[in-house]
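Run Gfo/Idh/MocA family oxidoreductase through structure prediction, thanks.
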Amino acid sequence: MLKVGVLGAGHLGKIHLRLLQQSDKYELVGFYDDNPDHAEKISLEFGYKRFHTIATLIHAVDVIDIVTPTLSHYKCARVAIKSGKHVFIEKPIANTVEEAEEIIALAKEFNVKGQVGHVERFNPAFIATRDMIHNPMFIETHRLAEFNPRGTDVPVVLDLMIHDIDVILSVVKSPVKAIHASGVSVISDTPDIANARIEFENGCVANLTASRISLKNMRKSRFFQKDAYISVDFLEKKCEVVKMKDAPENPGDFDMILQNAEGVRKQIYFSNPDISQNNAILDELETFADAIVNNTQPVVTLEDGTEALRVAYQIIDYFNKK
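Sure, done. The structure for Gfo/Idh/MocA family oxidoreductase is below.
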């Protein structure tokens, strides 16, 4: 078992601590949080071993799980990597693209592995449809959240939209050609509602909408490709696939047939792929353990996290130019 320590015991950090303690692939050694009173409370309430410095925790483990505020990701990762420790870094990978690129360089220099916590890659609805998504040419995403003061210190693009940016980059195998965006600041100093249009060199277009002041929560993506439409509900963990194929000569009474002006007839059929329920956060942490033990590539690499951050900042820069 890999010895692991957690940096940061906030809302998400506590979830990581609980899951790592349950995992068969890790031995949870303890945690560090820079708020002494909070750290003491967590230690007493849940029994996790509290470390009083980052250095002592890093020294005691094989893997560091960084669940601190984004501003400190780079500093924490840098210290851990230079100590020869593998790093799991919650999204976004860093506060700037330059910091992210240095994390990549350090991981290569010190021969350690890193993974970024883009948890939607492990959503069971996305897993069920991922292999069906081939060369999508139009993608539409909506990620809406009810207001929560936690996270409003960063633009909604880095808080919410970056999840969909990562998913889109994982299925569109083409460089970004152009970005157009608009955003509105309602209660924060940075945009709370944002829309972005990403055009890829292969012709694919992705339209992303994110809001953190919605009246309801929504996390839906739709992928349109030749002869197929795939809908993924990341919140409800449901999916639907609508496909078209050449119509049979003698269709059944209940077959749905479309015919275009040229007389080409297509049959529409629906499928709901089997979804294996999982704990996405536990899965992302345990697949990282597998990558370390088997010396394989993590599911969400440091490079993946950096590209998602790069596109997110291109969107934010577009706001600032207007």
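The chain has two domains: 2-112, 121-278+310-321.
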